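writing this on my phone so excuse typos. first protein, seq and then structure
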Amino acid sequence: MTMRATTRTTLMVALLATVPALAVAQDPSSDQDPSSDQDPSSDQDPGAGQDSSVHQGRGAGGTVRIDRPHTGPRPLVLDVHGGALYFGPALAVGFRVNIPLVANGFLPTLDNAIFLSVGADLYWGRYVDAGMKNRGLGFGVPVAFHWEFYFTERLSAFAEVGLNIYFPPAWVGGGSLVDDAGGWFLAQIGGRWMFSEHAGLVVRLGTPTTVAGLALSF
């Protein structure tokens, strides 16, 4: 009887000893990867915390806003236009090439740029020669300092000041080169609306011409 009691006692102790081991084996939390306790924020892209307001330039994935300075190059812009010459008066057709000089201009906290604007215009207008009113062909070569501000990806505005090397219809017809001398001075304001990445509309208001036309960027 003593041996049977001892055997029963030993079996009971063995069974009790296996219970905690079985409980641990059945606990699903014990199968988790130790690395899963890490902060999920550690998997984030290291660049995710950087300021996304830095403009990377037109066409480079940045958002264009007037308060976001531009980085990267500026495009060459060709304007083809038609309109009116005030001195004559006359009709005017021509073009401008805007060559970038400073990618982000004199105001470092804004999206602005400096260009050299050069071109050529043909004029067809009225002039007076020996008391007679005639019509004839003239031409001009504008050379201007062009300062442009970019409000959005599509919309910008600019101001220009410079010289218009002016050959009026009177001069072409044999008259004086200084006829309508005001045509030598250039002062204009304008705007540009890009309806695609490389094409848009442009308007210039001022002296010596007011014109509108097509803008192409390269």
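second protein below, same order as before
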Amino acid sequence: MRHRPVCHALARLLVVGCMSLIAAAGAAAAPPELTATVEGQRIPVVLGSHCWPKDPAQAPPAANACVEKANAPDLMAKQAPTIVQPNAEVELSFEDRPRQLAVAQWVRGKPTWLPPLNANRVVVPPTPGAYLYELHGTWEQGDASYIFAVQVGQGGPAPERTSYRRRRW
């Protein structure tokens, strides 16, 4: 009878420890991956600045490690934009849906924040040209930015990629 309280305490400790390990195993050590596609074609996405826990078992935000990267135009300087049709819908899909998501289009070196997304889709402009988009997502664990570029082409089927030189977003 005297050992029963000790056994119960040990059992509780074991259960709590196992639950913590299971929770940590399910948490990611990096921000969720963003997949951007247009008409089934995958658009390359670059992970920008972010704050995310190094150790998913530790409670955010105190345990977050922040990575500061260059601004969106500089990160995309050598990345070729993906050719898309005018008014194409870019579908955005995250491994883990963010609590908040904001989208900016870079115009003349500055981000212009767009209205909230409709069904996680960005509609590109009808005007031919290169367009740079930056997304900023917030999760319980932290936050992250993502960047992708498109080149709005004219008529006919779009080739998969286009040549690229330093653009002035």
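The chain is about 15% helix and 40% strand. thats all i got for now
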